[in-house]
Description:
alpha+beta, five-stranded mixed beta sheet, 30 strands, 19% strand, elongated, disordered N terminus
Amino acid sequence: MIYMTKKLLRVSLLLIFMIGVFGVSPTKARAATLDQNNIASDSVFQNTSTMNAHDINLFLNRYTNSCISPNSGFSSVDPTGYSPSGGYTYGQSVSAGAVIYDAAQAYGINPQVLITTLQKEQSLVTGGGGCDNLAYTGAMGYGCPDGGTTYSYSNANLYSTGTHFDSNFVVTTAGSQVTSVSGTCVNSLSKAGFTAQVIHGAWLLRFGQQRALGNTAWNVQLTNAPQNGDHWDNSDDPPSCYGGPMTQGNRSRAAMGGCAQPTYYDGYFTIDSTTVHIDTGATAALYWYTPHFHGNQSFVTIFQDTFGFGSTNSGQLSIAHPDGTLVRPAAGPNASHVYVLKDGGASYATSLGVFMSWGFDFGQVKIATQGDLSLMAASDLDTAHTTNPAPLQYREGSVVRGSGPIVYIIQNVSGVNHKRSLDSIENFVRLGYTFGEVLNIPDSELTVIPTDDPYGASLAPHANGTLIRDSNSPIVYYLINGERHSMTSGNILFSHHFTWSSVKIATAGDNLLPITWPVTWYGEGTMLKGAGSTVYIVDLDATGVNMKKRSFGTYYNFVGLDYRFAAVRLVSDDQLPTLSGPDIGLN
C-alpha cells in the first residue's frame, strides 16, 4: 500500500437522490442539514450489521437502471485478503452485494457508508450517471487526484458484465471480463476496477476514522476476515503516518516512527477556507476522503434519503417497529420473552402456549429496537408484566389440555380467558377437532384459567373464535359473540394467522347463527404490495377494525427493522387500505 497517495481522491459533484424505493419520491428527497463539525457518528460509521450481502443485492435490484445490481448482470472479483508484501488478493467473481459486504466486514465499516460513497462518486447504485467503463473503474473515486490526469491500463480484471445469478445471488454463468480502460482518473493499476476501488475505499475510510481518534494500533488480521480461508494481514498499518484531520486530544499519527510522538490536537481543521471542529473520527475520515463541503453534503443527503432514521448521526435502531410486530429484547433476563406491539405499548405473551395459540411463528420475532424497548415499561420488563397493555391471553377458540385426558376450549368472558371442557370424544370428533391441534400446556397454567360449564350439547354450534364453512360452500365464517362473520378474502384470513386446516365444517347449530358484518380488515402488521413498487404495513386504530396503510419510506426502514420480501402479500390495488398513515419512522 502507498499511504501518502491514498488521500488523493476525486471530488465528486454528483448529488443524486435515491428515488423510487418503497415509495420514496422526488418530493420526499431533500437536502439534509450538514453538521460541518459532526458529519457522522462513529457508531453509525462502524455498524457492520446494517445489511448483509443478500440485503444489498435486493436493494440494488430495486433500481431498474442500477449499474451494479444482479439484475444488470454485473459481477466483480471477491476481495479475499491483504499482505504487506503482496497487497490485495482476489477470488472468484461474485455479486456487487457480496463485494460490498465482504469489504465492509473486513474493515469493520457500515456497508451503507460504502453504498453511499459509490452513489456519491459515480451514481452506480441508481445508474443515474450512466454505466460506462470509467465509472466502474473509478467506482469509489479512490486514487483520483483533483489535477485531472488520466491513465490507461490493460490486462486487468476490472469487472464483468453479462453474469447470471441464482435466486440467492450466487453466480451460475460467468460474465465477460472487462480487462482494459482508457482515460481513467485512477492513478495506479492496483487501485483500478470495481472491487479494488471498494476494498481500498473501505480501508481508507476506516483507517482514517481510527487514526483520527488516536488509535494507532488499529489493523486487520485474519480473525477479522469475512470468509473462512481469507487471509488479512494489515500489520503495515500501525507504522504508517496519517495525514488527515485529528479529533481533539493527545494523539499520535502512527504507532512508531517519525510521527509517533504524541501531540495535543485541538480538533480544528480548515475545509474550503472555513474552520470546522472534528467532533468524531467518522467526520475526520469523510473530510480526508472528500476535502470539500459539497461532497460531504452529497454524502449526508444520499445517506439520509436512502437509509432513513433522520441522519448519519441517528441511532441505527432508534425507531420502534410498527404495531402488530412480534419483538423480544436482544439480551438480558427477558431475552426469551416475546411481546406484541400495540397502540404505543408492548403486550407480553405470558407463555409458549399463548404464543402458539395465536398462530405465531418464531421466525416472525424481531429483535427489539431502542424504540421498542421504550414501549416496554420497566415494570413490564422486570416484574409481573401487569402494566398496560394487558398481557396477551390465549386466543379464543384455542383447544388445550394439561397432563390429564380432558380437552378444553378457551372462551372469553368479559375479556378474560375461561376454559370449557369438551364432554365427550364424540363431540370432539363431531366438531372436527384433531389431537394434532390440541395445545399441551403445563397444569400450573391450566389450573389458573377459570372453568365454565362443559361444552358439547349435541346441537351446539362451534365455539366463538372458530372458523367454519358449509360443506357445500367456499365461504369461511369467523364465529364472534355467537354470530357468523364472513372472511372476505384468503389474504385477510391468512393475515390473522389462520390456516385452511383450521377451518371446520359447519354443524346444524352453526347454520342457525345469524350472519352479520364481514371481516374486512387485515391483521395488524400485515405487509402488502399492490401493482406499484411501494410496500405497506397495516396499522389499526384502537377499535382493531379501522385500518391505514403505512409506507416504509426508505429501504433501510424495511431491512433495518428485519423485514423480508417473502412476508409481503401481493394484492390488487383495490385491496389496499384506502387511508394512509405516516411513513415508518415518522411517528
